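Record 1 of the preview.
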Amino acid sequence: QLQLVQSGGGLVQPGGSLRLSCWAPDLIFLRYDMGWYRQRPGQARDWVATITTGRDTEIANSVKGRFSISRDDAKNTVYLEMNSLRSEDTALYYCTAFNWGQGTQVTVSS
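->
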């Protein structure tokens, strides 16, 4: 099965941190750039970050300086490290390659 499997997320207070993980099988992880999108309530899905197979990264301006993306080749896993979280970061976060992960809820609230 060529599925992306996400983990992490949850409820965090403003200013807190979370890390999302996305595991992919070799056929995806070794061949495709991977990234993260998010969908806030009532809004379209927005791009957040991308990491290439060569480890080049791009981060959306809205989260630059607070979020980072990385990959662990030994674990076939891509991470989204989220710091200084704000209420507006509350969203369903999706991992993506040529397909989509199942989505992970992140809620930032006191």
